[in-house]
Amino acid sequence: MRTRALGRALTPLLAASVLTALVPAATASAADPTECVRYTTSNSKHLAVGERLDSGTRFVPTPGKPELVMQVDGNLVIYAVGTIGRPDLPLWHSGTYGNWGAYALMQEDGNFVVYKKDGGPGKGGALWASGTYGTRTDRTPQASFIDWGELQVTGRTEANPSWRTATINRNAKICSGAPDRIVPTWDRGSWAESASVWLVLQQDNNLVMYRKRDGQAIWNSGTYGPSGAHNGSVYLQMERTGDLNVREFGPNFTIRWHSGTAGSDDAYALLQDDGNFVVYKKDGGPGKGGALWASGTYNKI
Fold first, then answer.
1. Domain 173-294 falls in which CATH fold?
2. Using one digit for the tens of pLDDT, what is the confidence trace for 83-124?
3. Of 44, 66, 76, 75, whose CA–CA distance to 145 is shortest?
4. Of 204, 301, 278, which is closest to residue 20 (Cα–Cα)?
5. Which CATH architecture fits 44-164?
6. Would you state the pLDDT for residue 110?
7. Pick from 263, 239, 246: which is nearest to 176 by CA?
8. Fewer CB in 10 Å around end: N or C, the chain?
9. Domain extents for the chain?
10. Do 202 and 188 contact (CB within 8 A), yes or no?
């Protein structure tokens, strides 16, 4: 079992022991459980060329939604916001903590850079950069923070967006695709929330549930570590057969974890307000029964 500390100034979390007991469902999720969408709607806020995030600055498109914070310790961090007086959840960070007074700058060359307090263009002191500098002149560079929790940088490279954290807030209901549509997936960085918990597919390949009241991990898929294919990355999907699984990218699409609920076509998964993550039959749900698998975390919030 691997763990990392939850800290507002430091790194994203991972890992607790895997819990898979099937239990009765209780209340529904904070998101409308009748909706099956890939991600939530959003507003955004932008940094133009020459603009910077100074030490201690919060960059917030919509109050109460995710925040981009240039911390006084030098770390640039994206947080999912918890309730007042309780911890927020770090979704991504630049890894530049320990550099007090550092700041972030959107440069004319298309690069978004975290500099030491006394550093800057022509002076050195770069601690982290998006790597989006280039020679394209048909784009206006900017850093954009979208309140579903994602930082994007439009630079002068060929890629569009040039760079992104992929930390997208997904709906709390995970559905299979219709026969004529591609099955929707979560890539690494995707996350969802209910009133009591967050669920995150982390960069270390682990699917982890965190308790909002104290930020502790209370369930995980046990899929941390490299897969050896496609840069070691995985994705989460609900197959049309009813099986929820974490798969590797690569020629074999190896399953790293699954709910074992195949054979119930069009089943769906729901992250509930009671802290339970449940796979239901197509016509099942909170108050209706039909639970096929659950994380067993309803009594851990």
1. Agglutinin, subunit A (2.90.10)
2. 888 999 999 999 999 999 999 999 999 999 999 999 999 999
3. 44
4. 278
5. Orthogonal Prism (2.90)
6. 97
7. 239
8. N
9. 44-164, 173-294
10. yes
Given a cut of 50, whether residue 173 has pLDDT beyond it is: yes
Sign, Cα dihedral of 53, 90, 190, 203: positive
> At 131, is the pLDDT very low, low, confident or very high (cuts 50, 70, 90)?
very high
For residue 204, what are the CA distances in angstroms to 8, 47, 201, 240? 19, 29, 8, 26
DSSP the chain: ---B---TTS---B------------S--SS-TT---SS----EEEEETT-EE-TTEEE-SSTTS-EEEE-TTS-EEEEE--STTS--EEEEE-S-TT-TT-EEEE-TTS-EEEEEEEEETTTEEEEEE--------SS--EEEEETTTEEEEE-SSSSSSSEE---PBPPSEEEPPPTTSPPPEEETT-EEE-SSEEEEE-TTS-EEEEETTT--EEEE-S--S--SSGGG-EEEEE-TTS-EEEEESSSS--EEEE---TTSTT-EEEE-TTS-EEEEEEEEETTTEEEEEE-S-TT--
Burial 45-78 (b: 16+ CB within 10 A, else e): eebeeeebbebebebbbeeebbbbbbbbbbbbbb
pLDDT in tens, 202-236: 999 999 999 999 999 999 999 999 866 666 799 99
User: Torsion angle, CA of 162/204/293/186, rounded to 10 degrees?
Assistant: 10
Which of these, 5, 15, 79, lies nearest to 225 by C-alpha position?
A: 15
Using the structure block, give the residue that is written with the tokens 């690494």: 188
pLDDT average, residue stretch 255-261: 96
**What pLDDT was estimated at residue 247?**
94
